[in-house]
Fold:
Amino acid sequence: MPQLIRSTVRTAARFAAGALLVNAIPHTVKGVTGQRFPTPFANPPGVGPSSPTENVAWGAVNLAAGSALLAAGSRTKGSKVPQVVGGALMAVFLSRYFDDVEARLGSRDPG
Structure:
């Protein structure tokens, strides 16, 4: 495999790992605190509430996938940059997405 392709795949995997690890946080926290929260298994997917158990499971899947992507890659100088960028972008996306989901469900706090 040419070096450029290998490097691109490695960077994309690190970016995805950061995003998956950040996505694991809200699902795991909501699940272990017994709160319902949207997952891809909800009706409608990503909008309706899922059970705490489904959230813990989805958080675990995200954690496992993100960890596997990190473990599969070699560490090189600057290798954490894509992880941090992926995680930061996912955090911003999630904050905006779930704010909109709450508004669509009519449960948005007016304060």
